[in-house]
Amino acid sequence: MNITRLSTRDTDFDAKLSKLLAFEETADEKLEATVAAILSDVKKRGDAAVLDYTRKFDRLPLADAAAMELPKSELQAAFEGLPAAQRTALERAAQRVTSYHQKQVQSSWTYLDDDGTMLGQQVTPLDRVGLYVPGGKAAYPSSVLMNALPAKVAGVAELIMVVPTPDGVKNQLVLAAAHLSGVDRVFTIGGAQAVAALAYGTASIPTVDKIVGPGNAYVASAKRRVFGACGIDMIAGPSEILVICDGQTNPDWVAMDLFSQAEHDELAQAILLSPDAAFIEAVAASADKLLEQMPRKEIIKTALENRGALIHVADLDEACDISNRIAPEHLELSVADPQSMLPKLKHAGAIFMGRYTSESLGDYCAGPNHVLPTSGTARFSSPLGVYDFQKRSSLIQVSAQGAQTLGAIAAELAFGEGLQAHAQSALFRKNA
Amino acid sequence: MNITRLSTRDTDFDAKLSKLLAFEETADEKLEATVAAILSDVKKRGDAAVLDYTRKFDRLPLADAAAMELPKSELQAAFEGLPAAQRTALERAAQRVTSYHQKQVQSSWTYLDDDGTMLGQQVTPLDRVGLYVPGGKAAYPSSVLMNALPAKVAGVAELIMVVPTPDGVKNQLVLAAAHLSGVDRVFTIGGAQAVAALAYGTASIPTVDKIVGPGNAYVASAKRRVFGACGIDMIAGPSEILVICDGQTNPDWVAMDLFSQAEHDELAQAILLSPDAAFIEAVAASADKLLEQMPRKEIIKTALENRGALIHVADLDEACDISNRIAPEHLELSVADPQSMLPKLKHAGAIFMGRYTSESLGDYCAGPNHVLPTSGTARFSSPLGVYDFQKRSSLIQVSAQGAQTLGAIAAELAFGEGLQAHAQSALFRKNA
């Protein structure tokens, strides 16, 4: 494989790094128009429109709207029908993910200030959440767990899953994961029409307050467009991994970690930073050796050759600086003392620390979420979590005494802003 | 004034309420095209483009790019030049807002599981935040405090403010508030060109990680478009208040509270819910009486007549149900026992409890933020807070022992998903 080699000592390193990281989604006007038409049609015709699109795009001859919903017994049967090892693995993963996310639950709080005014915030779960799960090849049961469990931990009352089943083909692992995660209802619809149904509601499909979960370009466009009618999670770009290695990890391990990102799709980005030039070549040799045994070798090769890089750095401190510039989705610290690097790392979706912590362990079962900010958005965004399924209402209860002092301040500032009703409303209380 | 009266006993109440709440932003294609062109021009030409647009739109004859920045001494002078009462009011408000928001600071945490694997999350502030402040009439110093202080409390290292100064007119209260809030740099630019400068950076204006603050339709469109390059706060719709009153509050107070929302703009929405029909008419009479003394009476009248409503409800429980359906930005509980209503209230930006708690006290100085979710988005969004200026990175450090158990689970699930590199990467650690 011909993977790009860079060195921070290159005179034009900054420009080369920028070029490597550059990724701009191209706007597809035809797709946008199609999605806009589907959303508007579902808004207008409801179930009838959803049925039409599902018959057309998924070749699913649904008799009526009721046929879109899967009975819960089918989810349970899928779960019970799994091979024992798979069922146990899914259960253990769900337990660990639940247990981690329980630490994220926020609680309401209040306090009294000196003049008896109560201030606080009330934390409540969202009422109803929609979970989009892709059909076909990219149907990942782990993704069902990672999206559904934080919502359940947050206390969301109702979780509605949509999953397209083109030609009627159902993914048993996905249905089993839905059962295990406590998904309340499942509809076998997908695409922009499913997003529209969740956002606007139909006679059969209830309106949700937020839509989460990955999807193709149609789904992403639909989510962007319904934002406001309901909430959405982030729109993910291609997946990325940055591995920082001191040169002391088995090069086969590091090469396979780069592969595990690259195998997702041709646009995935896998980058290694190391101060050890010989180690970089050892990883490249491992990659060449290991590639042949990979069923997805063509995807891996394309991703690594087009978007991957092996970068020689001066030392681990410089590696941290570059990592902060990249703000990677996944950051592996394959070093002897990862703890000492933490204070220097400002932006990353998830940090996998130490030689034993492959990204894949975190993807499936360590506990933290695998839905992470991509394309440098870790500069300002966070992993999916319980936070995304709770919301806060500020609480203010001003005492009679507080109304004196606060009324004077508010009136002064309101007059300064030319908002006399605001001022008057404060003065009524002050002078009561 | 002719304010709409509704009753939940009306047979078509649901439909009438839906119609009252309906608000759809109309897409303005010409505006969108203008904004797209400005963004692309600033991305390409940087400072030169920003200077051109500022000269054109704000009639500001800037000599060069350096002239866009205000010296910090000018902010300090503005603060020191305020009348003492105004300066003190601003200081007291800033203290209270800071003190409330300090309670929102999130800290990093970690824990060890049974097999010695460390899990946790590292919380870090955003590096650099841009604060948009509108120029002209809608220039509110309180808004500077509410946007800047949570960022400072979160630990954001650098806060960049942009504020247009059309024809060179500067708002001294706004500059004073910037000084008080610890804003680091101020540029006298606005509109889509300012948003573009913050999002993409120019030679003179540094790239920020997130842009917050209100603005007109051009600013809102620009913020939507740069989202992804940087983070943005919510895009606010027209402001709203819902007052629930048991009929025992002075009707003048309630009428003035409705006015204080209505005076913002003609599209603002003010609604009263009360089980006391006579009280509703008393509030209407107060409104007629008080309107004449209001400098902004035309705006108030238009807003109340077009989008306001006085709604007769069966009881306070029913009022809570309707409030949950509306998910109001501001919710006033002008009742004897507001605490007892809290458990029934699921969705609201801020809840103002008791007869003394006018919304205006919360807008300026009670402590909580006045940037709140509008148009029913309180179903899934929260007030602006320290949370919006911090982000989380998941931490995972798997022990040698943990790699045995987690490796087995991850490999089983990865094989199930057809991701062999993920599985192999986990097995390398398991079998080490």
Automatic annotation (TrEMBL), chains A, B:
Chain residues that bind Zn(2+): Q261, H264, D363, H422
Annotated gene: hisD
Protein name: Histidinol dehydrogenase
Amino-acid positions noted as binding NAD(+) in the UniProt annotation, renumbered to this chain: Y132, Q193, N216
GO terms classed as biological process: L-histidine biosynthetic process
Top EC class of this enzyme: oxidoreductase
Catalytic activity annotation: L-histidinol + 2 NAD(+) + H2O = L-histidine + 2 NADH + 3 H(+)
Organism field: Ferriphaselus amnicola
Pathway entry: Amino-acid biosynthesis; L-histidine biosynthesis; L-histidine from 5-phospho-alpha-D-ribose 1-diphosphate: step 9/9
A Gene Ontology cellular-component term: cytosol
Source organism, top-level taxon: Bacteria
